[in-house]
Design a protein that fits this description.
The protein is mainly beta and about 375 residues long. Helix content is about 5%, strand content about 40%. The strands form 7 sheets. It has a 7-stranded antiparallel beta sheet with strand order 1-10-9-12-6-3-4, with no helix packed on it. The chain has a 4-stranded antiparallel beta sheet with strand order 2-15-7-11, with no helix packed on it. The chain has a 4-stranded antiparallel beta sheet with strand order 19-18-21-22, with no helix packed on it. The longest helix has 6 residues.
Length: about 375
């Protein structure tokens, strides 16, 4: 649904879980030049993590209602780190619940309603200036994780609304961004109608707990990429099918090449006319198959050109050829029985909650990561 004005009643409406939010898509990396792609230099992304201005309210009625206006004076706001949980930074209370809902014993509620007297609100403000590489392009705003429901404004313009705590939410902001200083406002509610279906045994937090960033896209862009890397019935050849969804000025052509781990070309795709839905298919004879003991990856390089043959976008995408199937009620990979080796992992840190840092991932000890 498309809306230009935020409505508080969306919190209690199970049929409204996104407003102006763009459809989910692949999170592949893309670049404007081959050199940037080879160096992994993602110049079309601008991170907004760090210290934000912040105001906390125990219930919606007590929130600062017009904080999103461009000329609002936020001198009395506190500060908070993004990403991070509200409750672990001195606002609100921590709560651990297993079999109960968070409001059981406090409020007498029926689905899908929230308690207007027990629904903490966090109001976030962040100012930024657009980096040079992002100017004069289509712009998007990405929230990688927000608990539980939130409204977004940019320069006083309503951008959108979203629920679904652990799924990225993205909005186009091309129409609202301006030259110079921009003001981003985010209003986060701890509970919504979605809270009725998110009950599980863990700490109940709220806030922007994953990365926030801006990103721009070239004039012709692969919005969604789905690479199917299958195996032939005799488990000898690799079968490749890449499905591309393009947006923007869809002109010119698309070509691609598949490289092995050593960088040798093993499969080339001739240039074809770019279409909104473009498909590339091919076969790699005698492909080296992927499995847990030998996680061999190829790399598919996709290139988009305009009608004048000028390179507009480059996408490197790693892939492994493998086939999963059931044989006589046994799970098999590439025709052989799978033996799983691993442990269940829950992203959590004693100090940061579910806002895990890259250092924690690298160490492999999210429970004991140093502050």
């Amino acid at each position: 649904m498309e809306e230009k004005t935020a409505k508080l009643e969306w919190l209690n409406d199970p049929q409204v879980f996104s407003v102006n939010r763009i459809s989910a898509h692949s999170d592949h990396q893309y670049y404007e030049t081959k050199q940037e792609a080879e160096e992994g230099d993602m110049r079309l992304r601008q991170m907004l993590n760090g210290t934000w201005q912040f105001s906390f309210a125990e219930k919606p009625e007590e929130r600062v209602k017009e904080f999103y206006e461009k000329d609002f004076n936020a001198d009395k706001f506190d500060s908070i780190m993004v990403p991070g949980h509200i409750e672990l930074q001195g606002f609100g209370r921590c709560q651990y619940i297993n079999t109960m809902y968070p409001w059981d014993g406090i409020s007498d509620l029926r689905p899908p309603f929230t308690d207007p007297e027990n629904n903490p609100v966090g109001s976030y403000l962040r100012e930024f200036e657009l980096e040079t590489e992002l100017k004069d392009k289509r712009l998007f705003l990405s929230f990688q994780g927000v608990e539980t429901a939130f409204y977004v404004w940019l320069n006083g313009v309503f951008i959108g609304y979203s629920e679904d705590s652990f799924t990225p939410s993205e909005f186009e902001i091309t129409h609202a961004v301006c030259d110079g200083v921009n003001r981003l406002a985010v209003e986060v509610y701890k509970r919504s109608s979605a809270s009725w279906i998110e009950d599980q045994d863990f700490f109940r937090f709220s806030g922007i707990f994953r990365d926030v960033y801006l990103y721009a896209v070239p004039s012709c862009h692969v919005r969604d990429l789905f690479v199917h890397a299958d195996v032939s019935d005799d488990y000898k050849d690799g079968l490749l099918r890449a499905e591309l969804s393009l947006i923007g000025e869809i002109k010119g052509s698309v070509s691609a090449v598949l490289k092995d781990r050593e960088g040798n070309d093993v499969l080339s795709f001739d240039a074809q006319t770019a279409k909104a839905d473009t498909v590339l298919t091919g076969c790699v004879p005698g492909a080296r198959l992927w499995n847990g003991e030998d996680p061999y990856l190829y790399e598919l390089w996709i290139s988009l050109f305009d009608e004048n043959g000028q390179l507009k976008e480059v996408i490197p995408q790693k892939l492994g050829f493998r086939r999963f199937e059931m044989k006589n009620s046994i799970m098999c990979l590439n025709g052989k029985r799978i033996v799983f080796r691993g442990v269940n992992r829950h992203e959590f840190n004693v100090r940061r909650g579910r806002a895990i840092t890259k250092r924690g991932y690298a160490l492999g000890y999210p429970f004991h990561e140093a502050a």
